[in-house]
Amino acid sequence: YTFFDVENNQKTTGIRALKTYAQYLYTDAQNNLWAGFQTGLVVHSNASVFEKYSIPIPTKTNLKNLNYPFYFLEDTWRNGIWVAPFHGDGLYFYNNINQKYTLYPPTKEELLPRGMVWGKNGQILLLTANAFWQFNPDKKTFAKAPVPDSVQIEKHGGYQLVRGKNNKIYIGTSRYGVYEWDENTNQVFHYYHQKNNPNSLLQNGPIYALCVDTLGNLWVGMKNGATVIHNGGERYTHLSYTIGAEHKAFKDIYSIVAAPNGTVWMQSISAGLLAVNPLQNYKVINGFDVGDGLLSNTVYRICKGPDSLIIIYTSQGLQFFNPVTRKSHF
To answer: Cα–Cα distances in Å, from 92 out to 51, 55, 82, 127, 202?
Structure first.
């Protein structure tokens, strides 16, 4: 193991491993795996070298006893990766060339990140728990994101952010569903739960996960399961333990991945991986569990990995899974 002191930009060696489970996973263009833990970052490179990056103690917040999720955004133009830890200090940029971190703090604001995507103008869109920001990587400045006033993050809270197709940005909230923002037209659609209306979300929040499948439809993961929003809200498909025994495993959906063959995979806290085939009218298909070779049916996170693999972080360790061949390795 190699440990990286962010504050002093120094490396030391050791044999200690992180004992907490990974909360967020990300693979970059070099197929390096970045894992955000409660106590820092671990990077697994192609050379099978692990590096631990400890994040400094927060200076602007008093969240020392909370788990710190991490959000990642690759920057191939600047040959590095942006890292946003949920503790309020700002954005870190990791330079692949000199292997050093640089912190870019906001002027006054306290950042509690919930997601990052690239905007159409080459700036970073940064969703936080209480605001929506834009960061200029060249000027290293923060400003309000250029979204219409109808996107009310201050009121409903930010929770998830993902870029879809055709310049659409999807914003999951803590308390009131999902916003769809078209960067080109500046048009906004709002998807939320309506009592006794099956053509609405299962619930209003928190929105745990967002994913766009190969057909361009939006998947929304929540405590009660998952909802698929078809064609901008023309139709809704619900996968939830609350509406049928055949969907009893669909609850607490924290991560969703669309595979290259069109299938969609979700993590489960007790049933391994769940799978749905949108190309077969969104039919629930056989997933992947301990009977198939999964390390544990308790899965914390999944993400896209190299060579069309899905990276699975279970209670018993890390596993790679090919959704096409249904083969896996550790």
So the answer is: 16, 10, 6, 15, 36
pLDDT for res 56 = 46
Strands 141-144 and 158-163: unpaired
85 preceded by a cis bond (ω within 30 of 0) = no
User: 155: helix, coil or strand?
Assistant: helix
- The pLDDT assigned to 41 comes to 62
Identity of residue 237: T
Conformation bin of residue 157: beta by default, left when phi > 0, alpha when psi is -120 to 50: left
Say whether 280 sits in a helix, a strand or coil: helix
Residue 273 forms beta bridges with which residues? 267, 288
pLDDT at 17: 42
Q: Is this prediction's pTM over 0.70?
A: yes
Strand partners, 218: 212, 229
Full 3-state SS string of 220-265: EEECCEEEEEECCCCEEEEEECCCCHHHCCCCCCCCEEECCCCCEE
Mean pLDDT per 10-residue segment, the chain (330 residues): 40 43 68 66 58 46 46 90 79 84 80 90 93 94 93 94 93 96 95 93 94 95 94 92 84 93 93 93 92 90 84 84 85
- CA angle in degrees (0–180, nearest 5) for 156-241-321: 90
Nearest residue to 129 via CA among 90, 89, 86, 169: 86
The answer to whether residues 147 and 154 touch, using CB atoms and an 8 Å cutoff, is no
**Closest-CA residue to 24 (of 69, 86, 88):** 69
